[in-house]
Structure formats: C-alpha cells, structure tokens
Fold each of these.
Amino acid sequence: MKVARFVDALQQIAETMGATDWKFNANTCQVETVMSDPPPSLSEKNVSCNCQFENNTCHIVHIELKRFSLPGVLSPELVQLRYLQHVDLAYNYLSGSIPIQWVSTQMNFVSLLGNRLSGSIPKELGNLSSLKYLNLEANQFSGTVPSELGKLVNLETLMLSSNNLSGNLPKELVGLKNLTDFRINDNILNGMIPDFIQNWNNLERLEMLASGLEGPIPSSISVLEKLKDLRITDISGTIQAFPNLTKMTGHTRIVMRNCNISGEIPGYIWRMNSLRILDLSFNKLSGELPSVISTESWKFIFLSGNSLSGDVPESILKKGTNVDLSYNNFTWQSEEQPACQTKDLNLNLFQSSPKENGLRAFRPCMKDFKCSQYSHSLYINCGGDDVQEGDIVYQGDANVVGGAAKFFPSENGHWGLSSTGDFMDDNDFQNTRYVATLTSPNIYPLYSEARLSPLSLTYYQYCLQDGSYTVSLHFAEIQFTNDKTYNSLGRRIFDIYIQEKLVEKDFNITAAAYGVLTPVTKKYNASVEQEILEIRFYWAGKGTTRIPEIGVYGPLISAISVEPNFKPHSKGGKTRIAPIIIGAVGSCLIFLALCVLWWRCYFRAKPGRKQDIKGLELQTNSFSLKQISIATNNFDPANKIGEGGFGPVYKGLLADGTVIAVKQLSSKSSQGNREFLNEIGMISCLQHPNVVKLYGCCIEGDQLLLVYEYLENNSLARALFGPEKHQLKLDWPTRYKICIGIAQGLAFLHEESRLKIVHRDIKGTNVLLDRELNPKISDFGLARLDEGEKTHISTRIAGTIGYMAPEYALWGYLTYKADVYSFGIVALEIVRGKHNMSYGPATNCACLLDWVVLYFYVLSFFNVVRIF
C-alpha cells in the first residue's frame, strides 16, 4: 500500500481541528490516539481507505470524527486528499468558516452538524458538483442561502436548520431536482413559502418548522407524490384551507401545526394507510371527526387547540393511545364516558369542551365537583418528588409517566398538568423523555429535576381564591453543559403564557440565567377571577433539536410557586358558626330597621339629595369613591357592562386583583335612594350560591354605589335574547340547571333564610350567570320582607309588566307566590328562547304565556313541548 505521502497531510488536518494526540497508522489506515484519557463516550472515529486504484495505491476516501468536541477550525488541507468522498465532523466544537478550497475535492457527503461555524455559507459550494449530502444544521451561519447551491444537481439532502439564515429562499434552488430531504427549520427567513418546491419531484421529507417563511402553504405541494414526511409549523400569513394532499398516499407523518389552516379535516386523511403521526395542533380547524377512527395503526394524533366539535369517536375514547384533543369544542355526554373508565389511556381531553365551563372543563371525568375549600398558594416541584425548601413543601409530579397526550389531575391538591407532543425522531414511542434529571452537588435539589415537553405543557390550579397573585417560575438548564464541548451548543427557546396572556416570547433559560446549571426565577403578576390559574409553556419550533442528542428541545420547568398579593381570608372553625349566624342575622335586622327609619326621616326633611348620606352605621364593607374610580378607570364607558335597576353597571378591578361589578345610582333619582338602602339591607343578610354576593358599598357625596361580585356571562336575558354576538348556545342540561338554580335561590329567600323575602322583580335581566353558567338572583331594590303570620301583604305595586302575578298587579296582593309566577314566566323564556314581551297583535297573543295557553288548547301538552 502506498499511503505514506498522505500521512503528513492527515496529521496536519487533525492538528488544525485540535486533535493533537492523534496518530495515523499508514499500514492499517486507522486513527490511533496516544492521549492518556479515554475518548469521549459516544464518540465515533473512522478513516477508510480504498486500495483499488492503479498500482494498488490506497487513497483516503472516508473521514468520520464525531462527538470529539474538537476545538479547532476546518482545515483547508483536506484538498490534499483528492479522492476524499465522505467527511463527517458532526458534534464537535469547530469554529470559523468552511474553506472554499474544499470545492476542488470530489466529496459527495459533508456533515458539519453541531459545531460553532459562522459567517456566510460559501457560494463556492455550488461548484462542488459531486455533492449529494450537505448538513450544516445547528451552527451559527448567517446571511442568505446562496443561490449558487441551485447548481448542485446531484444534491439529495440539504439540511440548514438552526442557523441565523435570512432573506428569501432563492428561486435558483428550483434546480435541485434530485432532492429527497430538505430542512430549513429555526431560521429568520422572510417571504412566502416558494412555489418552486413543486419541482422537487423526488422529495420525500420537507421540514419548515419556525423557518420565518410566511404562508399559505402552496397548493402546488399536492404534486409531490413521493413525499412521506411533511413538517411545516408556526407560519404567519392569511388563513388558508386544508392543503390538498390526496396524491401523497405514502405519507407516514404529517405535521402542519400553527399554520392558520381552517375548515374541516378532509376524510382522506383518516384513510391514509401508511400515516402514523398526525399533528394539526393550534390551527382553526372545525367540523367533526369521523364516527370511527381505527387507532391500531396510529402512533400519535395531535389535534389540540382547534374548534373541532361533535362527539369524540368511541374508538378513541376506548382505545385512543397518544391522542390529544385538548382545547377544542367537543361534546361531553357524561362522566361515564369510556375514557373516564379506562385509566391507562394516554388520551388528553383537557379543556376539550367549552360547554363544560369552569372546573368541569379542567376535570372532565369528575361529576358535579365543587370547591369545598379554597387555597391561596401553590408550590410544585416539576418532574421531581416532594421537596422541602425552608417551611415550604413543593409537591412533586415525578409519578406522572409519559406526556405525549397526558392529562394529570393531582389527587392531593387542587392542581394538575396537561402535556402535548412527541419528541421528534428519537424513536421513543414509549414516552420516557418527559422528565430530566441531573445529579450534581453544584445544584439545589429543587432544580435537579425538571419537566419537559416537546410542544405544549400546561400547569393549572383550581379552587383558588380570587385575587392578585405573584407567579414565580423557577428554571435551570440541566441538559446542556458549560464546558467547551458540543454539549454546550444547544439553544432551548420557548414561549410562556399566564392566564392565556403571552408573558415571554422566545424565552431562553441559559440567556436569562447567564449560564447553565444556574437557577433563575421569573416573576409575573396574575389576576385570578374564576378560581382558576393556568400557566402554559409552548414550543414554537425554535432552538436546536439535536444537541446534545436528538430530541432535546422544548419547554423545561423546574418548579412553580404561586403566592397571594393580598391577605388571605381566614378560616373559621366549626364551633363558631352558630354564634356568627345569630350575630349576622341580628345585625341585618337592626341594620334594615335603621335603613327604614333613616330613609323616612331623611326624605321628609330633605326632598333632594345634596348632602352626604351619613349617620347610618353600615353593616357591610365600605369602599371609598377613590377606590371605585381607580377600579373602573374613572367610570370609563368602555367598562360599562349594562344598566341596573336604578343606574349603570361597570366592571372594575380592585388593587388586590378582585374583579367587581359596580352598580351606580343615578344622581337624580330620589326613588333610587330607597331602593339603594333596601338593597343593602336585604342582600347584606343573604349568603347563598344562587344569590349574587355583595362585597360592599360606597356612600360619598352624590354617589351611591353598590359593589358586587363580577359574573362573566352577564344576565340570563342577554344570554337568551340579547344581541346575537352575546347570545349563548345553551343546551338542554344547561337550561335545566339554570331553572333549578333560580328555583333554589327563591326557595332560600322564601323559606330557608332567617329573613323571609319576596323579591318582587324576578326576570331575565335580574338573573346573572357566572362562568359556569350558574344562575344568581340579583337586584333586590324592590324586595320586601314577608310578614310571617300574615297570609298576604297589601302594598304599592312595583315590578315589571309581564312578570307580575295578576293578583299583585291588579290589587297589590303580595305573597311569595308572586315570585313563583314570575319564575314561571322566566322558565317559559328559558325553554322557548323567546322574550315574554316579543309577542303582539300580529300573533294573536299578548305575551309568551298567552301563546303557551293558546297552543295548549289547540294542541296537546306534548305537542306544545315539541314545538318548544
């Protein structure tokens, strides 16, 4: 063999790249190490010679030096190896640029994956006509993609992901007609996805994850019949229809995530026999899924974050492994669903049905769950076991296995997690990579484990006392290193949302902490309005995905702590309940009597209202006008949410984060004074789930203000027959729930409360709906105390025409049955979905009740119900 003359060249190449302890054996054509330390684990070295040349001359044709973290630069001396064909220097620590001298070689394979190479990609590479494989992924190349690369007519694989490439993809790339694999993920390109990719007729794999390119996905993609692996994510641009993929019968993976795709999922997608992975998450897809989906051949189905509706196919509910349907509009029939009975499914239905409001949306398999106790803090050790830090115990979630489509509700605390996504190309279909662990004396125990996600990770807490909180997110990068090896070259980038609001875009733990293995805490304010806190981490396709190995990317969180910015309510002991109730009722009676007495004296003496209302010892919380003005932004019209019984109603936010509704009495209303005092006197005595909660009032100057709990869904009247954009689609179970809730509230007022009260104005506008569509009776300005032993009260007529009982409207004959009559009218409105007064002469009916009576006599009872 005659290789001696190349020994010196190879030795010089090795030294230029930083391999000073290597020797080349000319007899065996192998690299030998003379260093005292063993080579790095997982390192690969291979130098191959071909001795079939003239006169049995051997030439080096293959150099592979992977995972050695070589610290030097690429050597121009490779040109001396003029028969060299294959160079693989992946996973090193090489810097500098690609020597332009390389173009004079016969190389057909070049992999420089996972180094520190920078500068522009040399346009001269377009002259390396023999090149079939070029991998420059995970470096620091900048500038544009050279148009000269379009001359590489033999090129089959071009991988440029995870660099800083900008500009458009040059149209000259149309010449790459032998291309089978093209990847351009994680760059800062601009312009639209080019149409010329339709000319890559041999393309089998296309990746454009967070490339910077804009949509829509070109329709011409449909001609790529050989395409098996399609991945396009996180593109901006206009909303588009589902791309035509009918000719791509060999598809094994389709990922079109966050691509503004609307409409229904085409039926042919579910009939693709070779398709194993489908990810259409975070689009605008609607419609229903097929009634039957064969789940046996699928590895992953991700449909999170769309508007899919209808029933979840029973085949998924029974056998759906690694299926994520979270954040959609599906129908939940009952907690007896098969998915609720099968505990070993990796099926995520977290917030999969908006009709299931509040806690049911977070825990879909829990029947009629209600918070028996409210918390005001939370501490989670993400990915680890329970850990105590000082006096605080961080609850662990280490027992949560998997995460591709995982929904986990904690059993010992009011919190849980939802995880979505599969780590790409790691061949781990058992989902074992969702927790990272680092054993090191140099890091606190709280940061030695962390939970990971390849796409979306949500932590939530429910039964949380409403108010303002500080959310502390604890991070430490434990999968990269801080040494001069390829393990330190990874970039983890993700987004953070709190209460559905983006608080961090392109968050990088290492940059925030100024290093790896270094704890960093990010603090955010969060307002909890409906007893639920939601924290979500989302991977938008940015950062490296193959360092230190394939599948290391996506959100990483070490711990979460949630603490109140207010003084939490104290917990009363059971033995004190009776005295508290007696005292409260007594105070209410005394206060109500004072209200009546004061009102009579005040308005006899003063016909107008020019002075402050003082001298009345209020038995409810008192707010200053300044507090309310700040809360409502000085009664900004934008915060106005309706009109109450005697004035406008505004939404406000107190300093402690509590969301409120403020009812303002008209300054010209002397009648309103009486109703104002009456309402305080009545409602301050009442505590019931179906009666609106009064926080307090403000009496200052000409201002009379009542401060209530804020109810998200406004009034029943608006939900039923308000403007179309405000109407709610109430199914029959919800309508039934609302009727029962109103009835329970009235039963409390009439029979269960220590003060027996007749409301006198039950109607749709005086029934408010909370986030879970529970009804709450409001507006007690016209309410009267029931005088116990009397069968009825003769009183001044007050109320709303159409809702007053005849005996009361005609003769002032008032009993609690007047409320029952009004409730009956409201129940008819709920069932019919029509306003009581929406009838007239043209219908031969004066009101809804007339219509029901008319049809009841013309038809049968069941036919009337059927018309409803």
Amino acid sequence: MAPRLLISTACLSGTLEDKLAAAAAAGFGGIEIFEDDLVMSTWSPRRVRQECEDLGLSIEAYQPFRDFESMPEPDLRRAERKFDVLEQLGAGTLLVCSTESALAVDDDDLAAEHLHSLAVRAQLRGLRVAYEAQAWGRHVTGYLHAWNIVRRAAHPALGLCLDSFHMLAGGGGALSGLRAVPGEKIFHVQLADAPRLAMAPLQLGRHHRLFPGQGAFDLTGFVGQVLETGYRGPLSLEVVNDVYRQSDPRQAAVDAMRSLLALQESAHGLPPAPRLAGHAFTELAVDDVSGPAVAAILGALGFARTGRHRSKPVELWEQGGARILLNHAAQRSGHAGGASLCALAVESADPEGSARRAERLLAPVLPRARRPEEAELRSVAAPDGTAVFFCGRDWLGDFLPTGEPPRDEGLITGTDHVALTESVDDFDHAVLFYRAVLGMRPDQTTELPAPFGLIHTRAATDPDHTVRITLNTAPLRRGDWAPTVHSPQHIAFSTTDVFACAKAMGPHLLKIPGNYYDDLDARLAPPMLATMREHSVLYDRDAGGEYLHVYSELLGSRIFFEVVQRTGGYTGYGASNSTAVRMAAHRRRRLAALRHTPGPSRHDYSLAHLTALSLSPPELVEAAAEAGYRYVGLRLTPVTPQEPHHPLATDPALMRTTKVRLAATGIEVLDIELARIGPDGNPRDYLRFLEAGAELGARHVITQLPDPDFARKAERYARLCELARPLGLTVDLEFPSWTETPDLAEATRVLRAAGQPNAGMLIDLLHFARSGSSLEELRALPREWFHFAHVCDAPASVPATQEGLIHTARFERLFPGEGGIDVRGILDALPGGIPYALEIPHALLVAQVGAKEHARLAISATRGHLATGRTCS
C-alpha cells in the first residue's frame, strides 16, 4: 500500500485557515502543524482539530520542539505543555529536533537519558516522540548519530524522524546506513528537495528548499531505501522556501501534491509517462500587426501556409517536420502588435493516456470548443497559462487545404526546442510541471551572464530527445535595470544548413557584433569564421559535436525565432555567452527601431505625464517603452494638492531609478513641467527643477504665466529663460484659456517682449481651440518657436464656466478624432517633424483599463487618426 501523503503547514503562505483550506483542496489527507502557525491563529487547538476534521484532514504531527536534549536542565514543564497541545489537536507525534543551543552538552548518554524521560511522559498520554538530526544541530547533525542516541534511550515511544533535506544536504552519513534502522523505529519521514548551491545548510534549508523533482536530490532513491526498512508511515513535505512563503497557498499546495504523486510513481516503479515523438505544433497568438511580420519571416524560411482551420481563425504553416499555427483570434491583452506563444503540442504515443496522467497530477484541464467532425484534442494549462496539447496525427484533418503546396527549399527540418521565460515565482512550478506531467528530464539549473543581470536557465527533454523545452528566469530582478521585452519566448527550428537559413532570413536576421567573432578567432579556421561573421552565425561545441545558430529580429513584443544546426551528439543550447550577445543585439535593434519610423510624415511621440499621472516616473517610462513612444514628459511639480506628486527634484532614489529606466529602455525625456509663475512667483525658485530636468536629459520646460501684469510676467519669463539656457533647455510657454495668459496673441506678446533665444511656445490643441486663436495667426509666427505640440481632442461643446474648462482639460480629453477639435488643421499649421506629446487625460477610461493600457490606446488611436490624412509633413 502506498504511504499516506502529508504536508507541513510551514510549506504554505497565509494564515493557518488559508493553509488548511489549500491542503485539503489539493487532495492531502493529513498535515503537520508548525508551531508558529498555531501561535498566530485565533483558533484554539480544539477548534483547529474540528476544522481539520471537517476538511477531511488528519493532524499527524506537531513541530518543532527545540533545545531539549543535552541541556543542563531539560525543560519537562515545557514538554508537558506541548503534550497538552498535541492532545487537543488530536496529533499523535511530537517532532523533536536536535539541539542548536550553545549551552548543550556534547554527551550522547545524557541526550539519551533526556529523550527517554520525554518518551516516558509521552507514552502516558498515548503519544510518540520522533527525534530528528538537524544538519546545523549543535552536536547531533546526522541521522546515524541520532539513531545511536535513540537506541541508547531504548523506549518504545521514542523513534526517528528522517528528513531528506538534513540527510542529503548535511553530509550526515550515507543512506546505506538506513539498513541498520528497523522500520518500526522510524516514526516520521519528511521530504524536501534542494538545488546544489555553495551555501551553508542552515541558509539553504531555511530559504531554498524545493518540492521533490524541482531540485538536485535523489529523492526516489531516498524514499526507496526508507521503504526497504519496512517503514509504513506517511511521507510528509517540509519545504521552507522564500518564494512559496509569498505565493498563493492553493497553487503551492497543488505543486506539493503533484511532486509527491510523481515521486510516489517513480519510487514504486509505476509505468512512465507515454512516450513522446516530437513537437506536433507550436501556436502563436498574433494580431493584424504582428501576424504579417511573423508570416513574413516564416515565408522567408521556406514555410508554406498549407491550411486554414475549419472553424477558428487559425492558419497552419509547415516546412519539413516543423508546424506553426498562427491564431488570429483577439488577444486577451489587447496589446497591438503583440505576439505570444499561447500553446505547444507534443506528439504522444497515447494522447489519452498523457491527458489522464496530466489530470491525475492536478494539471488544470482546458475546455475546448470543437465541431463534431474535428479531432478530440486534450490540453492542460502549464503554470504560466500556456496550453499544452497531447496529439496524435489526426488533428491535421481539422485544417482545410489552402492550395499552397509545401515548398521544397529544405531549409527547416523540424522544431528543435521551445524556450519560455517564467517569472521567478513560477520557475520551479514550471520545472515540476514538465517533469511530472510530461515525464521530461530536467537538466541542472545553469546561470548565464546577461546585460541586465543573471539568467537562470533549465532545459528539459524527453528520454528520446525528441521534445526539448528550455525554461528561463531572472531570479534577482528586483531593481529597474531590465530590458523592455517581458518574458521573451522563442521557437528554435532545426536545419542542416544554418548558413542558407541565415541568407534566406535577409533583413529579419539579427546582426551579431564583430567583437563576438574576434573572440572566436583562436578556435576556428579563418574561412569558417569569415562565413560565420558574414551571416551572424553563433557557435558552440562540446565533447559530442558542434552547434551553429542564428536568431531573428524580435517579432511583436516578445517572440523571436532561432535556427540551429546540431552536428554529432551536441546536446546543449549554445555557449554561455550567446544569451548575453543575443539580448544586447535585440536591444540595439529595438532602440534603432524606436528612433526610425519610415515614411515622409514621420513624427516621434511623447507620453505626457498628465495622460497617466498615477504612474511614477519609472513606471511612465516603462509604459512609454511598451507602447512605442520615443519620449516622455515628466511632471516634476504638482498643479493641484490632490494629484499624485513625484518629487524627482528632491528624491535622489527616485531620480536614480528613473535614470536607470531611461537608460534601460532607450526612452528619452522630451520635457518637464510645470514652471507656473504667478504674481508672487520667483523664477529662481525653479532652479533645482531646471537642474533636475537637465540631469534627466530633458530638452524643454513647460511654463504658464497666470499673472495679469504683462510687464512683470514678461520680465520673469525672460529670467526663467536665462536660468534655463546654460542647462540646454528651452522654455515653452503654454496658454490655458482660463489663465491671465489665455491665448496665442498674449503668449506672442510675451515671447517678443522677452527676446530670449531659447524661448518657445507650446501649442496644446485643447487650449488653442478653447482660446479662440486663429490658424492664420499661428502660421505667421516664427517656426523656431515651436519645439513640440500637445495633441488631444475634446468634446465639441465648450464648457461655459472656468471650472468646466479646467475639468475637461484635466479629466475628460479625448483621443484625436473622437471630439470636435480640428486636430489636423492645427497640426498642419505647425512645423513639420516636431514631436507630438500626447496629453490625453481621461479619468473614466483610465479607471476602466488602467494607466498603461490607456497610454497604449492613446498612441494607437492618434496614429490611426493621423494616418487617414496627410498631416504636417
């Protein structure tokens, strides 16, 4: 009979109530209660017992009882109190860990005497004591040492607790020594995996334990040897891990149960997962922007669009043994130009068996709508939401022929591997999923250097090496220096001629810098190196063979392709520096694209802070990068007491973080705001504000002059220009219609009176339209005054009050084309090529979709509106 499966409450996050519910939902029949969880709970031990009974959970053990044996005076009064708690909980075993106290005496006879006394008292209550050797114990660190003490104590209520972590991480004796321990003297067994890290056992054990199958320990062998002793008690998980202690306890409990079921399967020699025969297909979710880009590179590589799904907007692209599905259904993210890997399918010798196994291992089964004549495809969700299908060959019949025959270039022979990026929280979940559900064998985790911090990568393959999946994460991504490509994914195609593939990719090929090849000079013959340099081919070799590979440009926001040529028995995925080289090359390509948009009517876009004022400056930069802006405008001074204030000029940490984000994304600061100088204002009060703008690389300063005295405001404006000029800043005067500088005519008088070379005028389309200024006046002004424009639309009806005007300006602007402003007419009156700063605050829309999505919608709508007619080119 298989052992009962338990989980310690120490494995899960949340309150005790949360942990019990999660354990029960995941299918556990029993638990260990960690003392801290009970202490923090408002439930009494009797209430905990009743709640567990209601959930179908037994309480098998209570832990830990620390620093008892070998102490100068054993605290039996404290022990009796613990026994009271066990009785109220209905738990049968108290787990006693070897003493850590510096006061403990190194005397095994004394330890045995103390444990014997404890066992006598436990037996009187019908309880048992399980003694555990901790790898960091003061004197007892190994299970054989603990067994020697238990034997000396010689009491039937005293036995061992064996913990795989302490036994495998602490060097406390070979597992072969278990043959000397009778199974009936093993009272409890705890399981935990762990990575191989150069770290003391104490730190490893309190921060980095993993569920079975996620780490490097041979837990199959451990459980096998424990069961050979005759042990028939439960197997309990005790996994203390910083990630799991912050994760949803329900997901962690599911992972815990999945890991135990997979371990139980391997330890008992049950049938393995059905054999896999390769990647059946990989599915990409695309839209009207990213779809043609992906199709173009597939076509360049010799793929043909051979099929169209009977009932779904999905295309089948084929070449050799590689199959890609392009799913044109609306993406849930709504991110225009986005492409993502939404599903991968494996060919299984027994698709139904694979699906049953996945369901038994608690993988969420995904519903799928299909017509009666379509294949019955079973799929489950991986931890990151990717759909995983188990297929035979019948699914191909769901695609109607397009009439386009497969091409015979022979460039691509199949799918070599699929690479996914997981969050640091999901990385171990994903490793366990592919190991347990698909029966794949993960390699050890490898650390790779990269421009933005270390990358952890772990590859998994099926036993026949027909399915390869690599998982990547950035484990220390806690700061702000990071690429703007979130969770990149790629598909690697196999080929027998990587150079022909590189040539076929043409402009889609990712160019690799010459320094990379200079570094290879000593390893390769000059003709080979010259050909690799010409075609941007990367190289690696191991004892089995060689690996030549190329990458594509980024397609959409996160997808790219790799083409690989393996020779001999090469089993890896490229040299350790290839990821860093690729990331740097992709970043250069993205930044170049950000600065170059073909076409005669090219305009750069800036994200004005008022459009997404709830975002901090680093968040605004990130939103701009994701949506395709080149610039941001940063609001350094608040206009109203109610609005969020981001004090860049006086907060060094915020300034540093913002500068790092700017450097990482390539976004630039176009302008800063707002120098609002009224009757009592002093331009020198804005000197630190101006210096902060210069530090950020800003080019322009927005000012307003709500002052009825013309001479005074003109003089102060001139002084502000004089302060800004040495910092390389222009001062651009904005004229809201409700201020004392309310229109184009008054602003023009100020600029002419000031006579400053760095003076400028900011045309905000809303303010211009509401001020009654004329386009004829605008066209007549000096072109050098205009450095950028604030673009928006607004309702056609003009509010009758000042309060209404202000409310519209701050909360109810519209995307161009949605209101009554003559957007094209005003922009046509301005110089060609100036940046368009989108200042489109819309409080209701931001509340509905969020500030980042609002920023993306703003640039998408503006581009769409302006593309329908010629504008200021």
